[in-house]
User: Fold this.
Amino acid sequence: MRRLRIAVLMDKDLIPPETIERVSDKEMAPWKTEYDVLVTLKEMGHHADVVGIGGDLSALSTACETLRPDIVFNLLEEFRGLRIHVPYVLGYLELTGLAYTGCGPNGMILAHSKALANRLLRAHRVRAPDFVMFERGRRVRHLRRLGFPLLVKSATEHGSQGISQASVVRDEAQLKDRVEFVHDQLQTSAVAEQYIEGREFYVGVIGNRRLQTFPIWELTFRNLPDNAPNIATAKVKWDQAYQEKSGVATQRAKDLPGDLEARIRRTCKRVYRTLGQNGYARIDLRLSPDGAVYVLECNPNPQLAYGEDFAESAESMGISYDKLLQRIVNLGLRYTTHPKE
Assistant:
């Protein structure tokens, strides 16, 4: 394996410390991915340098000139506080001709806009929940074509930001309150989509043109209160105390009937290609009680920390964490606007 110069791009506020002695899991949580990737790349023999950026690109520009990296390992989730700005940072890397890992700007823009992604998928005959868009700054209008219950969420944010049990609304008054919450608290437009009862699955996909899907992972609850929807709220994803209380777990899906697993894998590859993804992504799906598979969303550059869903599902099929990172690096080195492998 060739030793590479890798610039690990991240938010300047998430630069991990040199040592994690006496650091609790809670303290480590915000920058665990950054720490795991950085340390593992170094252990693999690569020369990995941190490039932390804030509100401008000067640090990235300087790093490109001084470090002369072979590739940028992109861990940036926001720029100037917004996810929708990240594709333009990647556009800068494209203009400089510097290789980088993960999804390109076009695919990221398509996936980040939930309404646009939903329309594209439905146009390509991929089953996705029907939805209504509520633009920020406009009043909440009466619904005519969608029935309740609905799931209300940000039109652009990922990571379950702003999603709670109250996000599942069952009448016009609850809908109005939740849409206004998204507008006011998240400062984004809102999407109200058909709420699909059933099992929730996550599928990792990796590749540029030749794609590989990881085993199907399922979100489960052991202690979910009666009548509470089994949705991936912000607490489910990020609150360890709540996870323990509710018995939240993600694990390889069991008891998938018939050819369902193959059908889900084909669907995920189709979503990946339809939304212009490359590098790696995670597809979130729901299996309704009648066996229909609905695509909820596509997450480019998903959580990459060791022990999280994406890495765990790769590990379950024999791809160790270091091999996963190396594969992501190799895909970034081979990616062009018209990817070839």
Summary: The two ends are 18 Å apart (CA to CA). The first helix runs from residue 25 to 28. The chain has three domains: 5-100, 130-194, 197-334.
